[in-house]
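User: Can you model how magnesium ion sits in this protein?
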Amino acid sequence: MIEIEGITKRYEETTVVDDVSMVIEPRTLCVIVGTSGSGKTTLLRMINRLVEPTAGVIRLDGNDNRSLPGYELRRSIGYAIQGHGLFPHRTVAQNIATVPVLLGWDKARIKARVDELMTLYQLDPDAYGPRYPHELSGGQQQRVGVARALAAEPNVLLMDEPFGALDPIIRNKAQEDLLAIQKRFGTTIILVTHDMEEAVHMGDKIAVMDAGKLVQYAKPAEILAKPASAFVETLVGASEKPFRLLSLGRVRDAVEKGTAEGEAIPGDASQRDALAELLWSGRPALPVKGEDGKPLGRVTVDGLVKRAARPA
Amino acid sequence: MRIRFDKLGVVIAAIAAYAAFLAPFATFRANRIVPGEARSILEALPTTAGPILLAILVAGALIALLKTPLVLRLGASVVALAALAILIGVAGSFLTPVGNTFARVSPASGFWLLIFAFTLLLADVLTRLNPSPWARVGVLVVAAVAIGLLLISGQWNSLSILKEYANRADSFWAEGSKHITLALGSLAVAAVVGLPLGILCHRVEKLRAGVLNVLNIIQTIPSIALFGLLIAPLGWVATHVPGAAELGIRGIGTAPAFVALFLYSLLPVVANTVVGLAGVPRAANDAARGMGMTDRQRLFGVEFPLAFPVILTGIRIVLVQNIGLATIAALIGGGGFGVFVFQGVGQTAMDLVLLGAVPTVALAFVAAIILDAVIEMTATKRRVETA
Ligand SMILES: Nc1ncnc2c1ncn2[C@@H]1O[C@H](COP(=O)(O)OP(=O)(O)OP(=O)(O)O)[C@@H](O)[C@H]1O
Ligand SMILES: [Mg+2]
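Assistant: Here's the modeled complex, given as structure tokens:
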């Protein structure tokens, strides 16, 4: 659990983060969104004390984060820096191994971990391991940056726009992988992004920042349904809201009794994808199948449209 | 087929033609200080060797002049240089009357111009081949071994510069080692003092301008003046600090020379350390802290390796500069190859001047090539990210 209490950061006269308080439950993923310069990075960096707050406390599992020396604290917290920040003089494998080496893992364990992560991020360890960062594409560099943050299996992971440079396909894959890792290891993740789609898709909770202030901190559905201010409303994109809402739900939760013609859609696809498929093919209903391929029922345009309406 | 000329080749061929046919190849003197008489290639060499050398030179110049394959140009320059190196020795024995120990034969302007022309060709070929750092060091080693073999074989013993050497073999090596000790020792001390000072200047902004300004001022003091300025304080140290005199600290001699070279070395070392550290990408520093490195781990694991090529460039400047400057040490009794230079100037014996100057230039050249190769090796591995 991460408890942020009355955190403020001032640089001379300007207040960059202004009295932010929030609690991030263990094993959840919290997304911070906000316009450029709203203080997202600064807030993130106060958690691992790369920036010392002017006022306030941050507690990790009940312990003040100032109870350890800064460098020890940071070794226990994964950090994927904005714009990757790889070490140009170290190979990809050495970059990923940074924290395990600092923690004194033995060689075999480090190598196994590096290979595992590189494979996960679709970088062949033999081909890419010995390369230097400047020999990679921007998207590959970013994946290495994320792999480096994950290397020591941290309980808490701070990620500053980690998927910005990825193409939509790889980004989707990277997002799914991150969610899988989070489920498997129960990692608590704080992720900064500009992309509302990503925020709604990934976040258990979304924190919206504006000019250093935390303007809303709630579940995605609530942010979409009841934006706390005009600013949040613009940020979530008024015209996109119904679709974002749908993308939160799974098809299995919208199943109605009955059958329909045509190819079945899997139950764990998003409701948004189902609606898109219905509209595109011009049909009124689609059959739904479970993981085992058995029919579950059907989804209809009418049913989905109702779900896209603002919740009461 | 149209004949195409190589641009640099035109210059090389012109120099070679002038040097081979119009300039003197060797100088003959009845003894070491009388003015010499010029000898052309055909006069300086036995009947067959002269025309052979001319043929090699003409062929080499033609290959240089026309647009020819690099391998051919490489071959031509190496053959021409080898022929010149061997035959200047032959000229020495040929021109020296049997049993005459006073007569002196030395290479003359034509020889030096030919060496220059074909070295230019060789350098041009090597640049165009763009050899790896290891290959460049390899070429250097081959050249050094070849010259070493020629020296050991006695092929050049009849040349005046080696006769000067023969008369001073012991002091040559003694002064040589003193020269190297002065140049390398002062560099080593400058590195030991300058690197931490540079790191300090990088971390403490207030110090930076002050330290660099002082070092800049020292750099502009002429060497002789600096020696003069050091005589009094070192003399004082020698008489007042117990044990100092036993360590060889005196107002004149090696101590002030060493201190002066050390002071001159500081600026490049400190300045390049500061510049190198300032050039470390901010993101790399940030990541280092974010991953949980301590300040020391960050300094040695990230900042220093990334700044290393720039720091090494500073060390290269200092080393080459010190090898040259160490010559001046002889003026205040500090020893080194300068001893021969100044003795030679005093006796108007040009050969003796060369005995001091040639090894100095060779040392500086070797140091430059080796350090350039090392810098390139470290820099390619640690290329700075573009992001
Ligand atoms: N070291 C610093 N000194 C002074 N001002 C700073 C410093 N670091 C950040 N700021 C200012 O604080 C504000 C917030 O910066 P921050 O990096 O947290 O923004 P951000 O929300 O992460 O923006 P982006 O989305 O562009 O990354 C900016 O106006 C920035 O100029
Ligand atoms: Mg930011």
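A couple of observations from the model: Residues A 40-41, 82, 160 surround magnesium ion (ligand 2) (CB under 6 Å). Chain A has two domains: 2-237, 249-307.
User: Helpful, thanks.
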